[in-house]
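Audit log entry. Action: structure prediction of a protein-small molecule complex. Ligand: zinc ion. The ligand was supplied as SMILES and no pocket hint was given, so placement is left entirely to the predictor. Protonation state taken as written. Sequence taken verbatim from the request; no trimming, no tag removal. Recorded inputs:
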Amino acid sequence: MKKFLSMIITLCLLLPLCGCKGGCYESGGEGLDIVTTVFPAFDFAREIAGDKARVCLLVPPGSESHSFEPTAQDILRIQNCDLLICNGGESEVWLEDMLEGMETEIPRLVMLDCVQALEEEVKAGMQVAGQEHDHDHEGHDHEEAEYDEHVWTSPRNAALICQALGETLCAIDPANSDFYAGRTESYCQQLLALDAGFRALAERSGHPTMIFADRFPARYFVEEYGLDYYAAFPGCAEEAEPSARTVAFLIDKVRQEQVPAVFYIEFSNQKMADVICEDTGCQKLLFHCCHNVTRQQLDEGISYLGLMEQNLNTLREALG
Ligand SMILES: [Zn+2]
């Protein structure tokens, strides 16, 4: 595998450099070359680096980040970047394998390492595909506990990540350190204002239970605000058909907890939410996990802050 990768890398280096941008979605800046794997990393990099960097989002918008396979151009792009911002964890094993095959060390920031990581949790009523794991990768040992990767769903974590990112940028581009420090500070203030909004709402509404008729990549969010939750599938389990038992369990919970709404996440087919709403009379609401966005949303200037503010409004409406 390693040999194969280094062969690809060598082949890449022989390719003409022009037009070798791969499928990257790029921000408009110039200067540092920053490669990111998932949307939150891309957005944070844009916010902190401003026009001093060209930021590329490696996983194409709208596609499944857990089954991503890099192209030869992507590998070259990483090889030559000034900074790689990745998520870390089980679904980026492809990246670890690739980096191991590279001769030079790529400067990188791992989002999972910037925060207090939480282990994946299988909660009562959750339907787990196969036996125990949702992020499945052949040939990798699954003995150890896995960390939940969706760290950015807590705005407080987002601020920690951006703080680390700001420091990293100051270190690799000291000439612009005042610029990065200023942007880090003002962006983190916005993140912490958002955090305060969620915290106040959670307190005011008595720390209610959130019921996800869907997958559940929002563990860091609910932990942050002391909310209980139920969900059909853990983390970013591959989309599976819910069993009758799973649906019945969630319907019971909706009645028991007397929640006014069930949540679904972006890119969901919403079928399970519809069934539960029909049976219980509650409403369905979209909770943005900000994992991934569409090309159109990117073109329209979507941001992590914008999506999380929508979440805050949705929750205000649902919980008061
Ligand atoms: Zn995921």
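Audit: result stored. The pocket of zinc ion is lined by residues 66, 149-150, 217, 235-236, 291 (CB under 6 Å). The CA atoms of residues 107 and 151 lie 21 Å apart.
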